[in-house]
Amino acid sequence: MAYEQILYDVGDHIATITLNRPERLNAWTPQMGRELYAAFAAAAADAAVRVIVVTGAGRGFCSGADMQALRDIQSAAKSGGGEVAAPDAAGDLAAPSIAPLHPALDTPYAYPQSIPKPVLAAINGPVAGLGFTHMLYYDIRIASDRARFTTAFARRGLISEHGSSWMLPRLVGPAHACDLLFSGRVIDAAEAQAMGLVNAVVPHEELLPRVYERATELATLNSPRSIAVMKRLVYTHQFVDLATASAETDREMLASFPSEDFREGVASFLEKRPPRFVGR
Fold first, then answer.
1. How far is the C-alpha of 234 from the C-alpha of 231, rounded, in Å?
2. Fewer CB within 10 A of the end CB, N or C, for the chain?
3. Of 125, 1, 112, 128, nearest to 53 (Cα)?
4. Which tens digit of pLDDT belongs to each residue from 113-168?
5. Around 107, how many Cα atoms within 13 Å sit in the side-chain half-sphere?
């Protein structure tokens, strides 16, 4: 697929998706949504890809929905006087190539969680609104010390969208979620890390090297099979009790023993060499 509003590159088992409207701080459009999800699907289907990194071009990660789209919605509401459809962040997605992990996660915005590969956000600058919502669904978030975060919804007369009122409290707790959603205030990267919104903060110039270091470690030192199973368990076990989760993890542990990756993991440890996992 030819991309116009993102960049897509694969190398060393890592797929990099770059939101590429730097003149608008990578403001989200339906076209960008379609291209992003096509890239996700391509990375998910590519056996050579073991980790996915998402970042932004220029000085911003994603400043939220393009304001022109919001003006068009406002104009339609004024002229029509009727019900107005909300903008689709995913941008009229084609049918996803991967089934949702759980019926409760059957929404386009949770699609990154259903990809059986780690999805890392390299947050290089400001992230707001719809961009903020979307990054909540990534597995790991690493921020530049120049990054700034705001939900912005209450300051635009809007409300938390696309399940962010469900995702955000699970990352930062209800009190921090209420603070960020009600106030729409801007927080810096250090505060985002302190409340658990991001995993790490690094100097701006070191952001991509540090993210690729983490991604390379995941791609080369860890079993793709193990990661895929554990990612599924992490997200689906939010909907079950401890006894059910414990029973499933015990079954999955037993299923790991005859796997090729388990044999390679033991062999590489005993032979004191890097593992050569195949994902089976």
1. 5
2. N
3. 112
4. 999 999 999 999 999 999 999 999 999 999 999 999 999 888 888 888 898 999 99
5. 14
